[in-house]
Amino acid sequence: MSLSTVLYRSLRLRCPRCGQGKLFRGRFSMHATCDGCEYQYDRGPGYFLGSIYVNYGLTSVLVVVGYFTLFFTGWLPRGALLWTLGGFSILFPLWFFRYARSLWIGFDQYFDPVPMPTDRDAKREPTA
Length: 128
Ligand SMILES: [Zn+2]
Known about the structure:
With about 130 residues, the protein is mainly α. It has helices spanning about 5-10, 50-75, 80-110, 120-125.
């Protein structure tokens, strides 16, 4: 699986393994597994902590770039900079929440892939 495939599936908020199942059932609530391939999205306690780093990191970069751009170009009055970027730093992470989780799951699947179950796995008798 290529990185571009993983990114494409992540940005569509789809399962990183099969690309079919939806990750989210609401604005902030996720499905536990993929409808298409039974991929378990949450691999363990604290798993989605990494998505917070993704979200925070991108928000920070955008605020810093936005600040210097707006400060030195003078496109906004100086007094409006704080309120504009403050509002952005609150609203953007809320909007980006689902994409940050999706990207986190996608990168995890890319770097530590969980293989697709085979027919042989499905026919295997459960062990006691
Ligand atoms: Zn899937």
